[in-house]
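Tip: read the tokens left to right.
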């Protein structure tokens, strides 16, 4: 069982930055791939970024490539999402999710555990 808690969301102006954290319980967090997803009002949940459990292979949605960076610190059981050059269209609730021995790729149905989400609002 893994419990995930997101933090770091908030209100920021366009062009600004935020760093989201996904803190996990459990001693084998290093065996999980972690994905970040987001859901804006009236829209479906979409993949943002993911990182594999081994070798730290990363995936990004085209909409965030070059602006967002996912990383992990297994010693702290935490995965980060650094978000730079934020745009109003990045406004959404951001969720992290974990997949045992996964690769961190987009399909959401491969992820077994989900956090409660953190709100990110980007003003124009």
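Filled-in amino acids:
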């Amino acid at each position: 069982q893994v419990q995930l808690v997101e933090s770091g969301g908030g209100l920021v102006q366009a062009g600004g930055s935020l760093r989201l954290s996904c803190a996990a319980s459990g001693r084998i967090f290093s065996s999980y791939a972690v994905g970040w997803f987001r859901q804006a009002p009236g829209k479906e949940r979409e993949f943002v970024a993911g990182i594999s459990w081994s070798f730290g292979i990363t995936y990004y949605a085209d909409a965030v490539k070059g602006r967002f960076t996912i990383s992990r610190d297994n010693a702290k059981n935490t995965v980060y999402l650094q978000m730079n050059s934020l745009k109003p269209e990045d406004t959404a609730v951001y969720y992290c999710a974990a997949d045992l021995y996964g690769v961190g790729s987009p399909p959401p149905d491969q992820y077994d555990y989900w956090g409660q989400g953190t709100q990110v609002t980007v003003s124009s």
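Residues 21 and 80 are 5 Å apart (CA to CA). The mean pLDDT is 95.
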